[in-house]
User: Fold this.
Amino acid sequence: MPTRIPRPKGRLLAIGGHEQRQTSDQENPTYDTSADFILQRFVDELSGSRTIVVIPTASEEPEEAAQDYVKLFSELGIEHVEVLDIQSREQANSPEALDVINRADGVMLTGGDQLRLTALLGGTKLLSRLTERYYQEPILIAGTSAGAAAMSTPMVYQGRNNAGFVKDEIHITTGLQLLRDVAIDTHFVARGRIVRMAQIIATNPGCIGLGLEEDTAVLVSKGSELEVLGNGIVVLLDGHNCTGNTIYEIKPGEVFSIRDLRLHLLSKGQCFTLPGFNEPE
Assistant:
């Protein structure tokens, strides 16, 4: 019998970076200028007391990054916004940090360096509690740029934007594992990251590559149901039926090959179901 994977009761909002921070853009009328932009949707999806916790750990300037979101969410009508600036593993294991996470109806992971997030949060009580709540309660966890990249199972933490065709050019570690068997990359089209995503899929074709363009996001429900938001495009790369994969045969520094990758390009309003969940509703 196949292993049953429980469906999370919480949801994820993975944002590709550089999301709009206001409801209109008079200088660029081609943008969607409605109030239903990504961060407004985050606010609209909150339940409970609508308490948001901002975690700026990934940022080199955490105080500034946090206050940007505090100001924005306050302008969007949220009365309870807290900052949880984790800068050590001791903090991430503290009762005070757990108290803050327990109050959250929504969590915002800012941009910066995703390796800081995994190095400081991985294996801590904070991450354990956040994951527990994600599976058992209707919490909403959002991340932008590095905060989104860290949500996945395999996580890219180093590699030139326009590279990836040479074996071992891309460095991967384990992310926060909130989104199973998915590799997330951000700023995807703007920074030309399709080839480096292909190498990630070549190393494990059981993962789906999820490339998020800037000011674009996916809202993930039940752990597998994706809805595309924002003004750009989402790229899904599926290697489950790939052929001609040479990544395991060649030496480091050599160019890899892979064939029969399946590519999906999705814009706002499109939906997609990830494979892997088989527990009945």
